[in-house]
């Protein structure tokens, strides 16, 4: 059961990352006017770097049950719980709780910790 919880955490992390990337491109950068254009490209790429990192974290959470090392499982869960936990707190604080992202990221943390 704990492996299933951990895999659900990884799948949720990947879905949230894809939503993050899509909303960034369609909602944030579609309306933003950032000058010079080079800076706009840099900010867009940094935004998507977070998306790629969260997908990578989701893949690690999905793969952790098949790893033969309990130490690797431990550190994957601890590290990604901190990463997604910080992101959830930052999102909740910055949006005053009005954006659904913090709930999704909190769910990733809860599922990962439950799968520990």
TrEMBL record:
<protein>
    <recommendedName>
        <fullName>DUF3325 domain-containing protein</fullName>
    </recommendedName>
</protein>
<feature type="transmembrane region" description="Helical">
    <location>
        <begin position="75"/>
        <end position="93"/>
    </location>
</feature>
<keyword id="KW-0812">Transmembrane</keyword>
<keyword id="KW-0472">Membrane</keyword>
<feature type="transmembrane region" description="Helical">
    <location>
        <begin position="99"/>
        <end position="115"/>
    </location>
</feature>
<feature type="transmembrane region" description="Helical">
    <location>
        <begin position="46"/>
        <end position="63"/>
    </location>
</feature>
<keyword id="KW-1133">Transmembrane helix</keyword>
């Amino acid at each position: 059961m704990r492996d299933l919880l951990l895999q659900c955490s990884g799948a949720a992390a990947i879905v949230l990352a894809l939503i993050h990337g899509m909303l960034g491109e369609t909602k944030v950068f579609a309306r933003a006017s950032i000058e010079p254009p080079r800076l706009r490209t840099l900010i867009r790429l940094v935004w998507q770097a977070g998306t790629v990192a969260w997908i990578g974290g989701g893949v690690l959470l999905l793969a952790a049950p098949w790893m033969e090392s309990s130490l690797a499982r431990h550190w994957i869960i601890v590290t990604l719980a901190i990463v997604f936990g910080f992101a959830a707190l930052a999102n909740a604080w910055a949006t005053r709780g009005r954006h659904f992202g913090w709930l999704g990221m909190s769910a990733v943390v809860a599922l990962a910790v439950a799968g520990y």
